[in-house]
Amino acid sequence: MEKFLVQGSGPLNGEIRIGGAKNSALKLMAASLLAEGSTSLNNVPEITDVAIMMELLEAMGVRVQRVGQRIEIDVPDEIEPVAPYSLVERMRASIVVLGPLLSRIGRAKVALPGGDDFGSRPIDMHLQGLEQLGAEFSYEHGDINGRADQLVGAEVFLEFPSVGATENLLMAAVLADGTTVIENAAREPEISDLANFLSKMGAVIEGIGTSRLTIEGVSALHPVSYEVIPDRIEAATYLAALGVCGGELRLIGARSDHMEMLLRKLEEMGMEWSEDEDGLTARVLERLQSVDVSTLPYPGLATDYKPFLVAALCVSQGAGMVTENIFAGRFRYIDELVRMGAEIRAEGRHAVVRGVKRLSGAPVRAHDIRAGAALVVAGLAADGETVISDAHHVDRGYEDLAGKLSSVGAQVTRI
Ligand code: UD1
Fold first, then answer.
1. Is residue 77 annotated as a catalytic residue, yes or no?
2. According to CATH, where is 3.65.10.10 located in the chain?
3. What is the β-pairing status of strands 37-42 and 63-67?
4. 124-158 burial, b if ≥16 CB within 10 A, otherwise e?
5. Residues 410, 241: contact at Cβ < 8 Å?
6. Structure confidence at residue 396 (pLDDT)
7. Best of 160, 182, 237 to mutate for ligand 1, by most ligand atoms within 8 A of CB?
8. Strand (E) positions, 36-195?
9. DSSP string spanning 340-369?
């Protein structure tokens, strides 16, 4: 079993290249099913989730090949529209093949994803929205069977701006008959990336970047070559590491316009930053100040940033209140931080974090991608050695986290 070995470190100095966004690359790969022929995606990170999506596409009869940071996806005329449990279980995001399969093939059999460490994660909004476009669903043996002879555009009002539901609906609507309007759509940069990719393929989409997406269905899309946006969550991880270690980091490729709220929070905590055409440069000269943190749909603070912010608050000056508004059960790593000497009181959706000067290295466990990365950040601010087990969770979303951090002076290795 792979582990991270982390030692208290700092200050950090140097530059890190930010990879392509996991949460965008996975959806663009699913969207490539919408057009027969060869799609080429650039800046695709070499992480486990992308490997699982490659397996999923291959299981449908699609040829996928990686060449460095590029993947070539060759979609044949006939595909097998099935997402088996063995893959969906390993990656919930597999559910985003539902929309493209229904719109291009008219059939889809997708295993229902189970629960995970975030608490219950229903997909009712995905299904209701697709039903409004004319899809019909039945359930047996743990699978959703979807059918749609021809999807027809409709007005869909999402109860909550769900990232996954917006993506599934967008990918279904591009080949539907007539106009679809998605109201209260999610506005995450990864959704705009998907919409821009679809537009390049020939889709007609208005309102990109807003909460009202209007899609005029077309009869066919064509394959394209496209570059994935940088991963704002990976960038946030290194900013948090800088926050607890001090120093100066250049994040090559990072985009401030995708992480405005986070940068405001970090500024409030005492981080300075500037931007040029190559990316962001951030500096931390003294111990950070505590702030309150509340997660919200974009442009609010992403729930995926929260574990790193909690790790930073553990060693900041003062106390901060953290509120989770997206996922009910996303606090499990807190017990691990407490093992490291953090002063945190959590109840329901809230946690109060009282900063201590240093944490104390301890053996801890990663329960999910971001929680694992947050424990690495905490380990950098701890005396002695932190050993984080279940490192494979982190590999789902990070290409060489240990290597990138050690290249700027952090003491992180894989064992
Ligand atoms: C995506 C991201 C995840 C990020 C999250 C929120 C991927 C692979 N994952 O997840 O990293 O943390 O957005 O920004 O891109 N909900 C329902 N019914 C539904 C769908 C969602 O009730 O049909 C609820 C969820 O339980 C949750 C909220 O809506 O409380 C947001 O979920 P959603 O935005 O859909 O998150 P994901 O797409 O699963």
1. no
2. 4-15+231-414, 23-227
3. unpaired
4. ebbbbbbebbbbebeeeeebbebebeebbbbebeb
5. yes
6. 95
7. 160
8. 37-42, 63-67, 70-75, 82-83, 107-111, 136-140, 143-147, 155-157, 179-183
9. TT-EEEEETTEEEEE--S-EE--EEE--SH
Nearest by Cα to 309 from 345, 276, 263 = 263
Structure tokens at 133: 């476009």
pLDDT for the residue numbered 113: 84
Q: Class of the 4-15+231-414 domain?
A: alpha beta
Tokens of 251: 């994040």
Strand partners of residue 73: 39, 64
CATH number of 23-227: 3.65.10.10
Q: Which one from 74, 116, 117, 383 is the annotated catalytic residue?
A: 116
10-residue averages of pLDDT along the chain (415 residues): 94 98 98 98 97 98 98 97 95 96 97 71 93 96 94 98 98 98 98 98 98 98 98 98 98 98 98 97 98 98 97 98 89 93 95 98 96 98 98 96 98 96
The residue whose CA has the least distance to atom 35 of ligand 1 is 162
Residue 334, amino acid: I
How, if at all, do strands 37-42 and 225-227 pair? parallel
